[in-house]
Amino acid sequence: MSSPLRLGIAGLGTVGVGTVRIVQRQAATLRARTGRDIVISAVSARSRDKDRGVRLGDYAWEEDPVALASRADVDVFVELIGGEDGPAKAAVEAAIAHGKHVVTANKALLAMHGQALAVAAEAAGVSIRFEAAVAGGIPVIKALTEGLAGNEITRVMGVMNGTCNYMLTRMQNDGLAYDEVFAECEKLGYLEADPTLDVGGIDAGHKLAILAGIAFGTKVDFNALTIEGIERITIEDIEQAADMGYRIKLLGVAQMSGRGLEARMTPCLVPDSSPLGQLEGPTNMVVLEGDSVGQIVLRGAGAGEGPTASAVMGDVCDLARGLHIPVFGIPAAELKDTVKSNRETPSAYYIRMELTDKPGALARIASVMGEAGISIDRMRQYAHSSDNAPVLIVTHKTAKDALDAAIRSMPETGVLASEPVAMRIESI
Ligand code: HSE
């Protein structure tokens, strides 16, 4: 049997503790599957005294994750600290400089510094593995870099923030307002320390930036994404979209066209009967499309101790087996710069607005849309007791430029009683 693979684990929060538990509980299985013992040499966290409900006494303790990453008895540095800069970045850089492989769950670090870290790791002859950074327990990085390596990837889509999906489904199923559900998530501890990372679409955007880089062979470029969170979604949007046969999701979509990369993490409508439409609660779903394979749908827990530690250990096992692939699937030096497409693929749109209830109001809006070259698929006006009539329009496939032009012209009609809300209807 080969020598043991020795881990140094930095960060003993939920995922760190979950990882320690798997190493302890599954020792025999891990040995059988990799042909090596997988052991922990040392750990590091902010507080040594905290009771984490797991046995840590056999492991050396380091106050400083950089020192942990540099230890001679560590082969793989497992970074579970989080944060795009600070100690996580310093420790990963130290690990690479000391010739250690890295396993990390840190999507922000990879989305912002992935290219530089990949260049450094590949020059040092070490691997960076990050299955746990995207969609928790779903092995989507492995699917893209290994299982689908024979495909040209045409589109990557997904619901990749469990908190947002929980919030949207709670609003949908229980008729609760955004603020009520947000307060509930705060109480339940579902939100990141900075909740904007969740509800502002940033956490999910980090994940999409990583997937897009791997899928299309480009440098991971978070700034090439269009990002919009769920903060402006109202219960009316949700109920009225449902009435038209749709669900609202914070959906990531990345596709490459001749014009460049189109990548956005924005609230979208999806058909309620589709797999994405049916996705409830904090679960994640990633949809991958390749020229040979067609469409694959992966669904599972996107966060939490067990699922995220499962992904960490999948990476550790690959390293134990000696599987080393370039960080983002092809060597970092060969990754192309990301060119951001200046146009979105045409799509159907949902538009919600209120109109002053007087003769010709609807006709004026329809005329603005016609002048912009937009064809209306369906239109619905709801019964109302006020002077303003709630109106929903679903368009046929239209260019985003035309939609923006129509929405810009709508105030000139003099019949708008509220700012129109427009959302893309994603075809899946
Ligand atoms: N806050 C994230 C989520 C955790 O809700 O999915 C994993 O990034």
What do you see in this structure?
By secondary structure, this protein is of the alpha/beta class. Among the domains are: 150-300, 2-Layer Sandwich (Dihydrodipicolinate Reductase, domain 2), CATH 3.30.360; 348-425, 2-Layer Sandwich (Alpha-Beta Plaits). It has 14 helices and 16 strands. The chain has helices at residues 14-25, 27-34, 65-70, 86-97, 107-124, 140-147, 162-174, 178-188, 196-199, 202-216, 235-243, 305-321, 361-371, 400-409, and strands spanning 5-10, 38-44, 60-62, 76-79, 101-104, 128-129, 153-159, 226-227, 246-257, 260-271, 283-290, 294-301, 348-356, 376-381, 388-395, 421-425. The strands form two sheets. Strands 7, 8, 9, 10, 11, 12, 13, 14, 15 and 16 form a ten-stranded mixed beta sheet that branches. A hairpin with a 6-residue loop joins strand 14 and strand 15 (388-395). Helix 1 packs across helix 12 (305-321) and helix 4 packs parallel to helix 5 (107-124). The radius of gyration is 24 Å and the shape is elongated. Bound molecules: L-homoserine (HSE). Residues 161-163, 192, 198, 203, 302-303 line the site of L-homoserine.
